[in-house]
Structure formats: structure tokens, C-alpha cells
Amino acid sequence: FNPGAADTYNNRGIAYQDMGDYEQAFTDFNRAIALNPKLAGGYISRANAYQDLNGYEQAIVDYDQAIALNPTDANAYNNRGVAYEALGDYGQSITDFNQALDINPQLAEAYTNRGNVYQDMGEYDKAIVDYNQAIVLDPDNAETYYNRGNAYADLGENKQAIDDYDHAIALDPE
Fold first, then answer.
1. Cα 75 to Cα 93: distance, rounded to the nearest angstrom
2. Contact (Cβ atoms closer than 8 angstroms) between residue 10 and residue 42
3. Which of 1, 86, 80 has its CA nearest to residue 46?
């Protein structure tokens, strides 16, 4: 038994996933988990692939396993929160984002994602607070400016919305 082999299969699976070859990615993730059932990263990788393919329920099962193996992995909570959001379970989604931020208060992505949920719920002021924090932590993320612009637009604050859209375009003109 070589735990390094599990990491190698997992990493190769991620490369296949990045290339869009999900069949081979799942083969490698499954092999990594078979070689080392305690490899939390293997479950996270497979969950991320399920999520890419809109398999949110399957992704949650794998994120649950990863969290059971490594309950201090903020990214696992963050990613599971995205899956719950996609299923419309906003309460569980916010709980997961809160847990991710309790573990790692510097995780800008969790602020952005929680802001997205608040925006979905029509709680635009809360969304803007989260987007503001995400921008403090990651000022070069065009998506966060775009999302905050949408929240401002939903509030009828068009000047702020335009400023954010301009900033998003400047960061990512394509």
C-alpha cells in the first residue's frame, strides 16, 4: 500500500477533469479512494467533478465524507455550500459558508458564495456586505464586482452598479 499512489491518481484525475474528460477523471478519483479511503482530497475531487456535471446530491455525499475525514477543511464546507445552494437549500448553504468562514476567515470565495445566496434570497444589503468583504480579501476578482453590481442594481442604486460593472470589465474585459 502506497499512499502516494492515491495522491497521484487523484492529481491525474484533476488534470483529466480540467481537460473535460470526466469518465477518466472519475476512474482516477475512484482508484485514489480505493487505494486510500482516508484521502479526504479524493472525495473532494470527485465531489467537485460531480458538481461540474450538476450532480449535486452525489457531490454532497462526497463532501460529507471529506468533512468527516477532515472537519477543518474550509474549502469542503464552501464547496458543499455551493451544492446546497444549487439545490435551493439556502439555509444549509449559509450554514456551510458560515462554517467555512469560522475555519478560515480569509476565504474570499466563501464570502462571495454566501453573498450570492443572500442575493438569491432578496437580501441585497447582506449580499453587499459579503461582497465588500470578499473584495477586501481578493480585490482582483471580477466576478465579485459583477455580483455586487447586480445587488446594487436590484436595490435601484444604479450609480454604484455601474461603477462595479466598470470595475469588473476593467479586470476581465472578455
1. 13
2. yes
3. 80
CA-angle at 105, arms to 129 and 123, nearest 5°: 25
What are the pLDDT digits (tens) for 93-151? Answer: 999 999 999 999 999 999 999 999 999 999 999 999 999 999 999 999 999 999 999 99
Run of H or E including 83: helix 74-86
Burial class (CB in 10 A: 0-12, 13-18, 19+), 63: buried
Residue 137 to residues 75, 87, 132, Cα–Cα distance (Å) = 16, 28, 9
Mean pLDDT of the residues in the chain: 96
Share of the chain above pLDDT 70, in %: 98
What does the alpha-carbon distance between residue 42 and residue 87 come to, in Å, rounded to a whole number?
A: 23
Q: What DSSP assignment string belongs to 131-173? A: HHHHHHH-TT-HHHHHHHHHHHHHTT-HHHHHHHHHHHHHH--
- pTM of the full predicted structure? 0.92
Q: Name the nearest CA neighbour of 115 among 140, 78, 87.
A: 78
Give the count of beta carbons closer than 10 Å to the beta carbon of residue 158. 12
Residue-level pLDDT at 3: 55
d(CA 102, CA 141): 22
